[in-house]
Amino acid sequence: MTDYYYESARVRTLESMIVGKERLATLLETKTEEERIAILREAKVPVVTDEGGMLLREETLLALLKSAYMELRELDPDGKAINLWLYPYDCNNIKAAIKAFLRKIDPASMLFDFGTIPASDLVEALNTGNYEALGELGEAAKKAVSAYERTRDPQQIDLILDRACYEIMLRLAKESGVAFALELVQVKIDLVNLMMAIRISRMKRGEEGKLFLKNAFLSGGELSTDWILHEIEAGEAELTERLLYTSYEDFAKEIKAGDGSLSQIERAADDAFMKRLKAAKMESMGPEVLLGFLLGHETEVKNLRILLSGKEAGLDNTTIRERIRESYV
């Protein structure tokens, strides 16, 4: 079994190029796109521009994320703890493709060429009805299409595929033998469940909402779904209070200190995940170091999207800063 000595040393070097707090602060103060492009290139971000030299934001962010995955897959090509994080991209691609297919529109422009399933295989599977090329998500895709045809409820597509995605991630994390990978998947599951509970609670759907949550909750997290359901029945405030006595204490405190908007709570959820992820920075070597780098890049991409899109929209720096998540570096 590898001791990850070389891999960890290489990743620690690469971490210095992550666009973290300091570079984000510098980017925030820029006045022009040319300044931002120069800072991104200095940080070795694979900037993609159009013929006129204008930044292509989403193409650049996808290239950045792909470069991080490719680097780690070269260092640890068989690492289940790394590869399992590609499944959410497969899941999102399948959901987008199914919805486009059902609306009889071309899904090509909606798909990321990133994940374990080539976008071309996905389109062919939907066109032919043969889902074998979609691997472990094939059966879920088939069920999702069938559920929509039966109910005409597009939400069923999301629920079925999300559940399948996290079940696969949870299994691969267990098979990897990396306790940290399993912990991170479980935290993701808990945060998804908590956000669903809060959203449904605000919609005041009564018994209908309770039934929806029972069917929508993901299993396998650190928090029992029965516990979440019980606490949210008493109200969002009660759920937040009870979270203070769990490993999500900081998440609850950030909610209580914020303005109560869903966007603020979503940021608190992302920050709660980052707090767990930062435990990897305490390790000198091992798969934890690689996972920290990889998922730190995920947040880097999210923060760059928030900042760059905010600048494009002409938002003031204070508003953009309030939306930026806690960085890995």
List the helices and strands and how they pair.
Layout: H1 5-15, H2 21-28, H3 33-42, H4 57-75, H5 80-83, H6 87-102, H7 119-128, H8 138-151, H9 155-176, H10 179-203, H11 206-216, H12 225-233, H13 236-243, H14 249-257, H15 262-277, H16 287-312, H17 317-323
Description of the molecule:
By secondary structure, the protein is mainly α. The chain has 3 domains: 1-55 and 285-329, no CATH class; 86-175, no CATH class; 178-282. The protein is 68% helix and 0% strand. It has 17 helices and no strands. The protein has helices at residues 5-15, 21-28, 33-42, 57-75, 80-83, 87-102, 119-128, 138-151, 155-176, 179-203, 206-216, 225-233, 236-243, 249-257, 262-277, 287-312, 317-323. It is globular and about 55 Å long. The two termini are 29 Å apart. The mean pLDDT is 90.
Keywords:
mainly alpha, 329 residues, 3 domains, globular
Quaternary class: single chain
Rg value: 20 Å
**Uncertain segments of ≥5 residues (pLDDT<50)?**
none
Structural class: mainly alpha
Main sheet record: none
Determine the strand fraction and express it as a percent band.
under 5%
Shape: globular
- Integer count of domains: 3
Following the backbone from N to C, one meets helices and strands in this order, namely: HHHHHHHHHHHHHHHHH
Tally of contiguous helical segments: 17
Instruction: Please state the average pLDDT score.
Output: 90
- The count of β-strands is 0
First-to-last CA distance? 29 Å
Helix residue percentage: 55-70%
